[in-house]
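Q: What residues go here?
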């Protein structure tokens, strides 16, 4: 795929995955996209736990499901757990002075970079914000103070048709000053 806007349109949240496996190489490429993402003061306040295991992926899925949410994650062959790490001194101080939470924005940018990279590779993703952080930390044996911000389900879509995007209009979201 060569057109960036085609890629933007193709990326959508996938909630039905085929049983085709995802390779380690593909997932590493996705993390490479995150590695190159911009961040405040180049702080790179992130780390990623990649789970691509017939045994462990279903255990991760269980941490993302409750109150009827996210049952579809049972089908996802792989997950990328996106963690927020400490920002560097410049980004921390800048955030304090400017009253901004740069690190959370940085993590979001890295997350969407992963999703676009996955789409470019023919994979499908779903960003997941509904998860039990404590349970995920226990399941993956992460350090207790890990801050998990998002989880990304990754796999091959069962159905490759792209839905129309439901979005606010440009007029609703843009103030144009010239
Ligand atoms: C921070 C964040 C959290 C989300 N959490 C969930 C989730 O827990 N479950 C889910 O099915 N989709 C989740 N989504 C996906 C959104 O519902 C989806 O991005 C939005 O409806 C737009 O649709 P699209 O991604 O198909 O373009 C999340 C997306 C973001 C950015």
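A:
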């Amino acid at each position: 795929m060569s057109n960036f806007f085609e890629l933007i349109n193709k990326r959508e949240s996938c909630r039905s995955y085929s049983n085709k496996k995802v390779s380690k190489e593909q997932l590493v490429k996705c993390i490479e996209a995150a590695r190159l993402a911009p961040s405040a003061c180049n702080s790179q306040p992130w780390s990623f736990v990649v789970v691509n295991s017939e045994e462990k992926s279903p255990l991760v899925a269980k941490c993302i499901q409750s109150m009827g949410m996210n049952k579809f994650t049972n089908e996802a062959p792989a997950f990328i757990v996106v963690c927020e790490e400490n920002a560097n001194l410049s980004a921390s101080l800048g955030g304090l002075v400017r009253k901004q939470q740069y690190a959370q924005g940085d993590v979001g940018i890295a997350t969407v970079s992963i999703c676009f990279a996955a789409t470019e590779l023919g994979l499908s993703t779903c960003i997941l914000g509904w998860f039990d952080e404590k349970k995920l930390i226990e399941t993956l044996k992460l350090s207790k103070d890990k801050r998990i911000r998002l989880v990304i389900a990754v796999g091959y879509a069962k159905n490759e048709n792209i839905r129309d995007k439901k979005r606010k209009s440009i007029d609703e979201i843009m103030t144009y000053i010239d």
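A: Context that may help when evaluating the design: The radius of gyration is 17 Å. The domain at 4-173 is CATH 3.40.109.10 (NADH Oxidase).
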